[in-house]
UniProtKB/TrEMBL annotation:
One function term, GO molecular function aspect: serine-type D-Ala-D-Ala carboxypeptidase activity
InterPro entries the UniProt entry points to: Beta-lactam/transpept-like, Peniciliin-bd_prot_C_sf, Peptidase_S11, Peptidase_S11_C, Peptidase_S11_C_sf, Peptidase_S11_N
Entry-linked Gene3D superfamilies: D-Ala-D-Ala carboxypeptidase, C-terminal domain (2.60.410.10), DD-peptidase/beta-lactamase superfamily (3.40.710.10)
Name the UniProt record assigns to this protein: serine-type D-Ala-D-Ala carboxypeptidase
Catalyzed chemical reaction(s): Preferential cleavage: (Ac)2-L-Lys-D-Ala-|-D-Ala. Also transpeptidation of peptidyl-alanyl moieties that are N-acyl substituents of D-alanine
Length: 393
């Protein structure tokens, strides 16, 4: 296994005679001509998902109650557990008395009832079920308290400096807060798990269908039905938080995230988000560089059991620019970590892909592996030594 920093530069030509404007890592501010957006909200943000670039913001770092938008972090940890094989969609979970006792939005689980992870996910994503959220949290971490600890650890990992959780549901609690910016980052991270929108895009469905206690699910995010392209993510409301929404929509290969916090009514909340989405799709477009899972490079690791390793994109990677503008040349630089400690687990970051314009970094994305990489056995190492000796004869 070679040590040292491996850097590879790829030049991507996108032919155009027009100028290019980037909302990049060193220029992460809102675009002009957007002053009239989110007039009804205390805070708001509009972000392009692939690049993480902010198109519009308003008081985006103000600490406010996120209400049930808290469940975006809850869903993120659940999707991570599923991706890592620690939780399976067809697994059945037995509901605890505590989970069944949750108030607020619920799917009316009963203590001792058994429900699949798949249906509980629907209960969280569609109906914002507090009981379903706690049932899943207890399964993943043993208790809601332990799960909340993981939520806060994940917030630190994502460098969210203005977020603190006290529960997995968003029910009113002292010292439980987040910001529009932090919610957009959580949403961006959640959307790496592309199957999440299979749940958050459902407008209506049923749980326990055909049974006496059948429950009709209706999405609390009405834009899923009434705004083309919206397929998530999470609403929120309490007396303190007022009306909140983290929404995502995709159109013409561009996905955006819009967050509104503290709106005065459902109508105001939806109007603000609709205007923000319209603004994004009317004024901006993306150029796709890589899809999630695309092979970026490869490594030969002599001390690994499988010494040929494909390095892939951990997420969709694009550039963002205003409509009518494009770029003449973009470069992507691969930076792999200097040292690797085996084993490496599926999904672990082993480097990053830097997207640059004229030498200026405009986005960063983790590079990862799609399968576990085990340390080579002594027998494997012995065979490789013999093979190298035979080649040198």
């Amino acid at each position: 296994m070679k040590k040292g920093l491996l850097v590879i530069t790829i030049v991507v030509f996108l032919m155009s005679n027009l100028s290019f404007t980037v909302y990049g890592e060193e220029n992460n501010q809102a675009a002009p001509d957007s002053e009239n957006l989110a007039e009804n909200a205390k805070s708001a943000i509009l972000m392009e998902r692939d690049t993480g670039k902010v198109i519009f913001n308003k008081n985006e770092h103000e600490q406010l109650s996120p209400a049930s938008m808290t469940k975006i972090m809850t869903l993120l940890l659940i999707m991570e557990a599923i991706d890592e094989g620690k939780l399976k969609l067809d697994e059945t979970i037995r509901v605890s008395e505590r989970a069944a006792s949750m108030g607020g939005s619920q799917i009316f689980l009963e203590a001792g009832e058994e429900m699949s992870v798949n249906d509980l996910l629907k209960g969280v994503a569609v109906a914002s079920g507090n009981d379903a959220s706690v049932a899943l949290a207890e399964r993943v971490a043993g208790s809601e308290k332990s799960f909340v600890k993981r939520m806060n650890e994940k917030a630190k990992e994502l460098n969210l400096k203005n977020t603190k959780f006290q529960n997995a549901t968003g029910l009113p609690a002292e010292d439980h807060y987040s910001t529009a910016y932090d919610m957009s980052v959580m949403a961006k991270e959640l959307l790496k798990y592309e199957t999440i929108t299979n749940y958050t895009s459902i407008y209506e469905d049923y749980l326990r269908k055909g049974e006496d206690n059948e429950f009709w699910l209706v999405n609390t995010n009405r834009l899923v039905k009434f705004y083309p392209g919206v397929d998530g993510l999470k609403t929120g409301y309490t007396n303190d938080a007022k009306y909140c929404l983290t929404a995502t929509a995709e159109k013409e290969d561009m996905r955006v995230i819009a967050v509104v916090m503290g709106a005065g009514s459902t109508k105001d909340r939806n109007a603000d988000v609709t205007q923000m989405l319209d603004y994004a799709f009317n004024h901006f477009q993306t150029n796709k560089l890589f899809e999630k899972g695309d092979k970026i490079t490869e490594l030969n690791m002599l001390k690994a059991e499988n010494n040929h390793l494909d390095v892939v994109a951990s997420e969709s990677i694009s550039t963002l620019h205003k409509k009518g503008e494009s770029m003449d040349k973009v470069t992507t630089e691969i930076k792999l970590h200097e040292d690797y400690t085996l084993p490496i687990s599926k999904g672990d970051s082993i480097g990053e892909l830097l997207v640059k314009n004229e030498g200026k970094i405009i986005s960063r994305s983790d590079l990862t592996v799609e399968e576990d990489v085990e340390k080579a056995s002594y027998l494997t190492l012995f065979k490789r030594t013999l093979q190298r000796m035979a080649k040198n004869e």
